[in-house]
Amino acid sequence: MATPAANMRIDADRLWDALMEMAQIGPGVAGGNNRQTLTDADAEGRALFQRWCEEAGMSMGVDAMGTMFATRPGNDPDALPVYVGSHLDTQPTGGKYDGVLGVLGALEVVRTLNDLGVQTRHPIVVTNWTNEEGTRFAPAMLASGVFAGVHDLDWAYARVDTSGARLKDELERIGWKGDEPVGARKMHAFLELHIEQGPILEAEGKDVGIVTHGQGLRWIECTVTGKGQHTGSTPMYMRRNAGRGLARVTELVHEIAIKHQPDAVGAIGHADFHPNSRNIIAEKVVFTVDFRSHRLEVLQAMEAEFNARAPGLCADIGVKFAAQVVGAFDPPAFDKALLARLRGAADRLGYSHMDIVSGAGHDACWINRVAPAAMVFCPCVDGLSHNEAEEISKAWAQAGTDVLLHAVLETAEIVG
Predict the structure, then answer these.
(1) Which of 110, 235, 273, 384 is least enclosed by beta carbons within 10 angstroms?
(2) Displacement of CA 342 from its chain's centroid (Å)
């Protein structure tokens, strides 16, 4: 198998210009983007991406979840395609690079191959997955989840946003519900470039991160039930305060995660108080525990300890505890051969790199179930993401996309 020459690089200025042009669609209020999935802004971004793909000589396919597949033909009609991409949808207060770098970096790979007249045996398919963020239609990574058989298509179609709009209806409204059956495509491999969304690469002074694992997670929705009483007239010893139960469980979550360092994280980021009045002791609190680890045995141990100890902590203060798992997936380990190609590419190109675990979920985590998959990370300033102040440098974008280019070429096999 031919190895790409070390002087083969992408056009960093062209990639950066594409990132900045896409960022003009669905602008945020503070310099970032609000291009939530299946909105008019998403439709506009999709149309621009399609135009760029067609100008690069690719043909566009769209599946029934609206995922876009732009194909650059290979020389072997029987060779399975190498898929490359990420997502164009953003958070309501999203940055310009989360997901977008992976899609437009993949497009830049194809543009570079066109410039150099390079042909590959396997086709290359640049991919924009629908609803990766999950901010409008939960859960996240929805289209890739349907593709990988994790979610049922009709179940996904029935997801609704806060206004009651259904995902299927919004797909049809913006004109991006395709005819292809979801998951019918077969992949030789899938590669995804993404910003780290964390501070490690910048702190370590590394140009790129080679993502060996994704984190598994357990989202445990908990309900603590006490008694709603007047905050001023109820003696302290007679209170059954659901809020106090939340406090005890919050400390438990932190204790369990600390016990499993450095391979675990845990927190409570969501809580609803009932009746949520200043002068009524909380009658009920509903909240969600988020445990994550890239080691399955650690994830299982944290969940087991939590389930064993939380009910007793609440019972000790006279409140009731109930819990159910509302989100779960086991940690994916990415393909070792693809990881070796990414490391080799970084070495060949002179980019510093380190192995890293993804703290966030990505489409590659689901696609890893149906095809060999791997990811490469680009640093981001202060690790900031899901924020309009999200920032990367042109040099970081180039490094990640150069490494992606070489790994794609090795996987798709240069002809001649």
Answers:
(1) 235
(2) 20
Residue 161 and residue 43: Cα distance in Å, rounded? 17
- pTM of the shown model: 0.89
Instruction: Quote the tokens at residue 314.
Output: 């609440």
3-state helix, strand and coil shares in percent for the chain, rounded to the nearest 5: 35, 25, 40
The three-state secondary structure class of 11 is: coil
Of the chain, the end-to-end C-alpha distance in Å amounts to: 10
Residues with Cβ within 8 Å of residue 269, at least 6 apart in sequence: 288, 290
Residue 408 CB coordination number (10 Å):
26
List pLDDT tens digits, range 355-406: 999 988 999 999 999 999 999 999 999 999 999 999 999 999 999 999 999 9
Q: At what angle do helices 100-116 and 12-22 cross, to 10 degrees?
A: 140
Give residue for tokens 């009483």: 229
Q: Could you report the per-residue pLDDT of 373-386, keeping only the tens digit for each?
A: 999 999 999 999 99
Beta strands, E only, 106-188: 124-128
